């Protein structure tokens, strides 16, 4: 596997970039996330973030305080989650912990090819720029996370389909999975914090200019202007297409691993296999405040319900 190294003529500091798949995913070496990064390192990491869409940092000696501190070096942080509970001492942190939803719901979801795949918090008018996930207690095997490149997914559509979806808009909202019965407390929490937004089906990436198939499978409810039959059929095709294996990368967690992904250009899948094991799994996420998406036609997203995600 080749390793890219970004050099600057001004200083000798560098990071190493080891690609993990053809268009998405890279391991980053030479950066200590427990320390304040230099401006050059931040610039290099951000350039890699935009190009590879998700980055992996191994052997990072972090605690909650340093995790929040390094996350803030890449932008403002929102509250960890507007629906789920967050850390009282560190409201910027959201715990991704095994069985965290178990007490809130009964039943099993009706599984479709895209079940579980999502882009973080797309019901908001300003979905996050990115998310950073830090593994604290990870299983020796199982519990991997997958990401898909929604830019590659867009490019793989036919020219006719690209022209069609370029002009479409979709409604994103918090939904429960068919077959799952949340308890009343959780339903009340969703009702109090519900957000619904209309986003372009194809957004223009603000840093790269790339066209992105912006369909968060978990949250995309309908396509505007189509009949329910047309909307359902097109969403099924696009959601299935977006997670084709050739667009994806799969990352194995190790202790002290951190992952950072571009929420403007990816969707990801939280694992379910770990729920059937005796292994614990404990990770923590920070979330970078995002901007309002813009479509190919220059139109911004529109809020239908709720308020924007704000800095914590």
Keywords:
6 helices; alpha+beta; 8-stranded mixed sheet; Double-stranded beta-helix; 4-stranded antiparallel sheet; 20 strands; single chain; 312 residues
If you had to describe this structure to a student in words, what would you say it looks like?
This protein is an alpha+beta fold and 312 residues long. It has a single domain (4-305), classed as Double-stranded beta-helix (4-Layer Sandwich). Helices cover 20% and strands 27% of the residues. It is built from six helices and 20 strands. Strands 1-2-3-4-17-8-19-5 form an eight-stranded mixed sheet, with helices on one face. The protein has a four-stranded antiparallel sheet with strand order 7-18-9-16. A four-stranded antiparallel sheet has the order 15-10-12-20. The protein is globular, with a radius of gyration of 19 Å. The N and C termini lie far apart (40 Å).
């Amino acid at each position: 596997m080749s390793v890219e190294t970004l050099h600057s003529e001004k200083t000798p500091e560098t990071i190493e970039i080891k690609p993990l798949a053809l268009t998405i995913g890279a391991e980053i070496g030479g950066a200590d996330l427990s320390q304040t990064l230099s401006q050059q390192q931040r610039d290099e990491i951000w350039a890699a973030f935009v190009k590879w869409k998700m980055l992996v940092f191994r052997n990072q000696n972090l605690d909650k305080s340093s995790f929040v501190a390094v996350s803030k070096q890449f932008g403002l942080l929102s509250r960890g989650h507007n629906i789920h509970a967050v850390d009282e001492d560190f409201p910027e942190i959201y715990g991704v912990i095994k069985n965290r939803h178990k007490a809130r719901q009964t039943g099993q979801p009706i599984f479709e090819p895209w079940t579980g795949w999502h882009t973080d918090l797309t019901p908001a008018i300003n979905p996050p720029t990115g998310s950073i996930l830090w593994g604290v207690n990870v299983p020796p095997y199982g519990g991997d996370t997958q990401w898909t490149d929604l830019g590659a997914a867009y490019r793989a559509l036919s020219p006719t389909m690209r022209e069609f979806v370029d002009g479409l808009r979709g409604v994103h909202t918090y939904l429960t999975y068919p077959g799952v019965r949340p308890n009343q407390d959780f339903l009340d929490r969703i009702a109090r914090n519900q957000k619904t937004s209309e986003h372009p089906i194809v957004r223009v990436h603000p840093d790269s200019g790339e066209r992105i198939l912006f369909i968060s499978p978990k949250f995309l409810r309908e396509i505007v202007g189509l009949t329910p039959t047309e909307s359902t059929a097109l969403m099924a095709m696009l959601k299935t297409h977006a997670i084709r294996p050739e667009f994806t990368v799969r990352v194995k967690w190790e202790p002290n691993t951190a992952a950072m992904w571009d929420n403007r250009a990816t969707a990801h899948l939280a694992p379910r296999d770990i729920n059937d094991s005796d292994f614990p799994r404990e990770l923590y996420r920070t979330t970078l405040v995002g901007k309002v998406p813009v479509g190919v036609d220059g139109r911004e997203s529109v809020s239908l319900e709720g308020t924007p995600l704000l800095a914590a």
